[in-house]
Write a structure and sequence with these properties.
Radius of gyration: 19 Å
Order of helices and strands: HHEHEHEHEHEHEEHHEH
Distance between the termini: 38 Å
Low-confidence stretches: none
Protein name: Tripartite tricarboxylate transporter substrate binding protein
Mean pLDDT: 95
CATH superfamily of the largest domain: Bordetella uptake gene, domain 1
InterPro entries: BUG, Bug_dom1
Number of domains: 2
Shape: globular
Number of helices: 10
Oligomer: single chain
CATH architecture of the largest domain: 3-Layer(aba) Sandwich
Family: Belongs to the UPF0065 (bug) family.
Pfam families: TctC
Length: about 280
């Protein structure tokens, strides 16, 4: 998105992008809250991975109210996939095998135990009638590692996002059995049914958005809000979304803050229901 902002001349100076690793985003979050709480030039990428961890108290003493939420500009969608040569041709076949012997089906994802990929698996397990404790989830440090393990035969099922698998789907190395999107996606996923179509009440929308320091000056916050709106309306951003199998999803300002508050509360309740937190 930084490049789109520069191409549209929303910003006139180069935007520096820094990847702060550690704690599933917790290190970056703590740094913003404690070290850069009024920085006018800082925006930080976020997704449901952020709100899941906030809901579970994974960011130490910090909460969703310790930053200011800016907006979301796109959405990815969860999916369930297997190797192209796996014995299961449909979601129903996989579910039948999974229910028959959960210990034989290792499901991998690119998040830690309790993270959003794990939550996807637990939600699907609940929808098909499996006990959470019977589900064999293997956590990896990112979707790339999980995909490598799937292709290597170390796990049987991959739980991830549409944007992660596009190249593999087009190459024919994986088979996507179900989408966690509200409706079917365009190619290369056009022929993949949603889980709801198949009778499993599971959706996982991976919004892609940003937060900023809580004490960012008002004029700076308004500048970044306008910037997001310009990006979202641009054909350049539409092309990037299409190239990455991202859907249209825009929300900003106060509306997005309310959305975040509700989602954190929903994830907290869901995490308790699934036995992730007490």
């Amino acid at each position: 998105m930084a490049q789109v902002m520069q191409d549209l001349k929303i910003v006139t100076q180069p935007i520096k992008t820094t990847n702060v690793t550690g704690g599933g985003g917790g290190v970056a979050y703590a740094n913003v809250v404690t070290q850069r709480s009024d920085d006018p030039n800082l925006i930080v990428a976020a997704s449901p991975a952020t709100t899941v961890r906030l809901a579970q108290g994974q960011f130490s003493r910090f909460t969703e109210r310790d930053v200011r939420w800016l907006g979301a500009v796109a959405a990815d969608f969860g999916l369930v996939a297997v190797k192209a040569d796996a014995p299961w041709k449909t979601m129903q076949e996989l579910v039948a095998a999974w229910k028959a012997d959960p210990s034989k089906i290792a499901v991998g994802g690119g998040s830690a135990v309790g993270g959003q990929d794990h939550m996807k698996v637990l939600l699907l397990g609940r929808a098909v009638g499996l006990e959470p404790r019977s589900i064999k989830y293997v956590p990896f440090d990112g979707g790339g590692q999980a995909l490598t393990s799937l292709l290597g035969g170390f796990i049987q099922v991959f739980a991830g996002d549409a944007s992660e698998l596009r190249a593999q789907v087009e190459a024919g190395t994986v088979r996507v059995l179900g989408m966690m999107s509200p409706r079917r996606l365009p190619a290369p996923y056009a022929n993949v049914p949603t889980l709801k179509e198949l009778g499993y009440n599971v959706e996982w929308v991976v919004w892609r958005g940003f937060y900023v320091p809580k004490n960012m000056p008002a004029e700076a916050y308004e500048f970044w809000l306008r910037a997001l709106r310009q990006v979202e309306r641009s054909p350049e951003w539409a092309r990037i979304r299409e190239q990455n199998s991202l859907g249209q999803f825009f929300m900003a300002g106060a509306e997005f803050q309310v959305f975040i508050d509700r989602q954190v509360n929903q994830f907290r309740n869901l995490s308790r229901e699934l036995g992730i937190i007490r």
